[in-house]
Amino acid sequence: VVPGETALAFYKAKNPTDKPIIGISTYNVIPFEAGQYFNKIQCFCFEEQRLNPQEEVDMPVFFYIDPEFVEDPKMANVDLITLSYTFFEAKEGQKLPLPGYQ
Fold first, then answer.
1. Chain centre distance of CA 43
2. How confident is the model at residue 10 (pLDDT cuts 50, 70, 90)?
3. DSSP tag of 13
4. pLDDT digit string (tens) for 17-45?
């Protein structure tokens, strides 16, 4: 991905069980210092997702790396940014707070 250009990626999720699962995905950016430059335009994260038994889905994330990334001397040696997700089964009535918001 070239900083400043938008990109679309898909994450595959599969429910290997015989019962429906409702879950929420949270994300992580590595290296941590690059996270401030990673901007999600549209993402499945922090929204409940239902996966039926044995269902496999592709979940999209539309994003860009802020062009200021290339101007930051602390990012000079960073040539790989990893975006990962963890899918948690949702508990009834439980809401995850959005990061940075009270």
1. 7
2. very high
3. E
4. 999 989 888 889 999 999 999 999 888 88
Is the separation of the CB atoms in 47 and 27 below 8 Å? no
Q: Which of 28, 40, 29, 37 is nearest to 75 (CA)?
A: 37
Here the tokens at position 4 are 């400043």
pTM for the whole structure? 0.75
pLDDT digits 0-9 by tens, 65-93: 999 999 999 999 999 999 998 888 886 65
Strand order in the sheet with 82-89: 49-51, 21-30, 82-89
Residue from 65, 80, 61 nearest 9 by CA: 61
Cα angle 98-11-69, degrees, rounded to a multiple of 5 = 65
